[in-house]
């Protein structure tokens, strides 16, 4: 499993679009904001949002694409017949978690110094927020990956989900000061609740911890249930198109 995880890490580092979204874009965005944001209050508002956004971004632009790639090329079908797809997917998920942990630590450190944020960390909430964020968005990314049938459609769906969540999460603006329709949309945006949890974890912003954690839990259960139904349906229906597995028969 260790070797498989390392191989996935190496593969991700060789993919230009993943390198950009995982490492370059967070750096560029934080530095760009640091040039213009001089308010300590606004900087403290932005940092938790950056952490939340980059966790989502790292998952949503990698996981659906790779799952679609494995299905499109018949790799999952081939392994299902000759080995264990669970081992393959576990190795991939572990590699993504390693990247997310490193990335999150770098974003917090870089954001703290670049934006001039004074942290007031709640250690328990930080670990809880990290675990909830990763699990929630891994399920969302997996769900998107099982819905699509090609790599191109995976990227298209990832972009749609990303910008929808970005626009309804209140990361760059307070939801409380937004139009009424955005306040309503925020209630069905998992990124909104994740952002709130990170705000309390990093700067101890006053929030309803149980309410936000509970809402995140509801999304977790919902994504898991829908994903289970999709995976079960795909296994029953079998592959819909010619794959590598079929060619090798």
From TrEMBL:
It holds the Pfam family ABC2_membrane. The keyword Membrane applies. It is a multi-pass membrane protein. The keyword Transferase does not apply. Residues 10-197 form the ABC-2 type transporter transmembrane domain. GO terms for cellular component: membrane. It is found in: Membrane. Keywords: Membrane, Transmembrane, Transmembrane helix. The chain crosses the membrane at residues 20-39, 45-67, 88-113, 125-148, 155-175, 209-231. Coiled coil: none annotated. GO terms for molecular function: ABC-type transporter activity. This is ABC transporter permease. The lineage of its organism: Bacteria, Bacillati, Bacillota, Bacilli, Bacillales.
């Amino acid at each position: 499993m260790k070797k498989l995880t390392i191989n996935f890490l190496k593969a991700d580092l060789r993919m230009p679009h993943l390198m950009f979204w995982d490492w370059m874009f967070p750096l560029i965005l934080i530095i760009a904001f640091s040039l213009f944001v001089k308010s300590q209050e606004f900087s403290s508002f932005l940092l938790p949002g950056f952490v939340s956004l980059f966790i989502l971004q790292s998952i949503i632009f990698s996981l659906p694409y790779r799952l679609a790639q494995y299905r499109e090329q018949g790799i999952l079908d081939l392994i299902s017949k000759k080995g264990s797809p669970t081992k393959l997917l576990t190795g991939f998920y572990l590699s993504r978690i390693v990247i997310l942990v490193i990335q999150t630590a770098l974003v917090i450190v870089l954001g703290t110094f670049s934006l001039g944020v004074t942290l007031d960390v709640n250690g328990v909430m930080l670990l809880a927020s990290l675990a909830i964020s990763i699990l929630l968005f891994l399920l969302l990314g997996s769900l998107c990956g099982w819905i699509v049938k090609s790599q191109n459609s995976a990227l298209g769906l990832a972009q749609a989900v990303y910008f929808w969540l970005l626009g309804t999460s209140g990361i760059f603006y307070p939801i409380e000061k937004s139009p009424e329709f955005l306040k309503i949309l925020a209630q069905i945006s998992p990124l909104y609740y994740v952002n709130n949890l990170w705000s309390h974890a990093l700067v101890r912003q006053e929030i309803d911890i149980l309410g936000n954690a509970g809402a995140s839990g509801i999304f977790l259960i919902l994504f898991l249930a829908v994903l289970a139904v999709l995976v079960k349906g795909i296994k029953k229906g079998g592959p819909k198109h010619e794959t590598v597995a079929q060619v090798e028969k």
